[in-house]
Amino acid sequence: MGPGENIEGLAPVSVVIPTYNGRELLARHLPSVLAAAGAYRGRAEVIVVDDGSADGSARWLGEAFPGVRVISLPENRGFARAANRGVEAALHPLVMLLNNDVTVEEDFLGPLVERMGDPGIFSAAALMRDPDNPERVESITRLGWEMGFLDTVWPSRSEVEVFPDGGEIFYACGGAAMYRRELFLGLRGFETIYHPFYWEDADLCYRAWKMGLRSVVCREAVVWHRPGRTIKKVTQSQRRELILERNRLIFQWRNISDPDMLLVHFYWLFRHFFWLVRERNRPKLRSWASALAMLPLARTRLLRDAARQVLSDRELAARLSGPYHG
Q1: Taking the domain 13-234, which CATH number applies?
Q2: Which pLDDT belongs to residue 232?
């Protein structure tokens, strides 16, 4: 049976887990992934991409989990490059991307694969819950346009409760999302301009949305995740906040093509800039300067994709705002 064939009518899946100095997290969470892969009624492989770890992860994985494919990168290159390398190496047409600190329910793959049976869907997000606060859901995201910025809107608890299975979302969180490998690679995967992390998953799904390819949530596919454990392990809090702010800016410049929306964005950007200067907020100003260095490359990549755009920023801001669009 070849890599593209399936068993019992379910498409084969490659599970890809990027990791950096995450041996302890993998020891805790990887067994649940292997159990789910074994329980899945189709073909499944598990790939761990070791992003230049210094904790002996790659060697340990080979000894402790011989059934896992391990790809070792010679140096730490960041989340986007590690994830892209794993998707490139995947044998199967559907790729399940997981953080190394995610525990999955044994039956989570099947509902995601069934949801991906709709050819108009680019990505499907698992329902990501926090074990310390089970009512918190990370994976239902909507899109906001306010004060010149496209941004993530998190629905209220009551909105999350009624959000439909298969409802459209702004983006599928890369910590637990299934993608079509061919389309993922056709979009050139996660953008490396967001190095080392944050906003890559939103950017990828937004670019797919502009091509008319949807992202949805799959409520029946449940995974468990304590927010930020992987990133907190390797990066200090203040630096994380500055990276988040820098990449939020880069996202606007990489993706807004509507001329009127772009003018509104820069109007509010300049107002905010003068406020930062007045407040002498040097850390955030350095973050903005770092983002500004990426502006030419961000706009170049936006222009490169312009010919494939079928939905506008304005259409997406309207479609993906509000409680949900079923």
Answers
A1: 3.90.550.10
A2: 52
Supply the pLDDT for residue 9. 72
The single-letter DSSP state of residue 214 is E
Say what the pLDDT of residue 227 is: 82
CA distance 173 to 178: 10
Distance, CA of 145 to chain centre:
20
Q: Tell me, what's the pLDDT at 326?
A: 45
pLDDT tens string 77-102: 999 999 999 999 999 999 999 999 99
Per-residue confidence at 239, pLDDT binned at 50, 70, 90? confident
* Selection from 233, 142, 148, 252 nearest residue 194 by Cα: 252
Kindly report the number of other CB atoms within 10 A of residue 202's CB atom.
25
* Burial (Cβ within 10 Å: 0-12, 13-18, ≥19) of residue 111: buried
Q: What's the half-sphere exposure (Cβ side, CA atoms, 13 Å) at 244?
A: 11
What angle do helix axes 57-64 and 23-39 make, rounded to 10 degrees? 40
| Helix ranges restricted to H, the chain | 23-39, 57-64, 79-89, 109-115, 157-162, 181-186, 200-210, 229-234, 237-255, 259-279, 282-292, 295-305, 313-319
pTM of the model: 0.93
Cα 94 to Cα 96: distance, rounded to the nearest angstrom: 7
Half-sphere exposure for 113 (CA within 13 Å, toward CB): 24
Radius of gyration (C-alpha) of the chain in whole angstroms: 19
Residue type, 109: L
Q: Could you read off the pLDDT of 107-136 as tens digits, one per residue?
A: 999 999 999 999 999 999 999 999 998 788
Question: Between the CA of residue 246 and those of 152, 188, 290, 301, what are the distances in Å?
Answer: 15, 22, 7, 17
